[in-house]
Amino acid sequence: MAFxxxxxxxxxxxxxxxxxxFMLETGGILVLAEDVRLQPLRDLNGYFPFCPPKTEAEWxxxxxxxxxxxxxxxxxxxxxxxTPLNAVVFGKLxxxxxxxxxxxxxxxPGFYVTGNLYRPKSEKLCRHPAILSPxxxxxxxxxxxxxxxxxxxxxxxx
Length: 158
What we know:
Layout: H1 4-25, H2 56-73, E1 88-95, E2 98-108, E3 111-120, E4 131-135
Antiparallel strand pairs: 1-2, 2-3, 3-4
């Protein structure tokens, strides 16, 4: 069994050999120094000036780039296939001039989203605003007097 000291010497020799190989391949120029991963990390105290695009075409290109970056960051690039929602209303409460419907739907196959749908009662056949209050697992609040995350203010419906 080799001593740990000899193992560290072998690792150092291998690293030096790799470095020499890169220098020989690039004609003596060390390519690793240009690697952006080796530059100092950016933080919020840095200076990052924003130069807005000057034409509408430049704005359109920028907006497309931003949309793609956000989609990639959210894991939505490429966009997943749309599947049927299979929405189900499994209960209804009558409350004065509005109703509360207990609903669930399948956002992706096998993943269900539950919630309450607050709908105004109206004789008119026109569009009305509605409130969907999704339910989920919320960590317990540190302050016992704080409201749950999904508590939405409903004015005029009480």
